[in-house]
Amino acid sequence: MTATRRNTWQREAVRAALAEARGFVSAQRLHEDLRAQGSTIGLATVYRALSALVEAGEADCLQSPEGENLFRSCATHGHHHHLICRGCGETRELEARVVEQWASRVGAEHGFTEIEHVVDLFGLCANCRE
């Protein structure tokens, strides 16, 4: 049984800071931003709040090419993918029906069901290419 999580001032502060962030941001960066604004929130609390927001579907989490977990306020509910600029962090949420069909087909070909996957694309946006 999953416990209902309380909405605390810390979670609200993380939610607001995440909504203001441009693109994906690390927990450490979010923590630094909150502290710079005068918050007394601890880094472990930021991680817990981000985890709760991801679990609730209010935030996206992905692993950067360098292996760091990055977070973003979720604009789209339900399963989706991302196109992320390696330069500035600009992010577009994508529906990718062809990816969904491919994942289901490959799983079925190997006798798997209930397929889950993560597809995030990294590149350079038009502004960062210049």
Task: Give me a quick take on this structure.
By secondary structure, the protein is of the alpha+beta class.
Topology:
Elements: H1 9-20, E1 25-26, H2 27-36, H3 43-55, E2 59-63, E3 69-73, E4 81-85, E5 91-94, H4 97-109, E6 120-123, H5 126-129
Helix pairs in contact: 1-2, 1-3, 2-3
Question: Your description of this structure?
Answer:
Helix 1 (9-20) crosses helix 3. This protein is α+β, with helices and mostly antiparallel strands and 130 residues long. Helices cover 40% and strands 19% of the residues. The protein is built from 5 helices and 6 strands; from the N terminus they run H-E-H-H-E-E-E-E-H-E-H. The chain has 2 domains: 1-74, Arc Repressor Mutant, subunit A; 77-130, Dna Ligase, domain 1 (2-Layer Sandwich). It has helices spanning 9-20, 27-36, 43-55, 97-109, 126-129; strands at 25-26, 59-63, 69-73, 81-85, 91-94, 120-123. Strand 2 and strand 3 form a beta hairpin. The longest helix is centred in the middle third of the chain and has 13 residues, at 43-55.
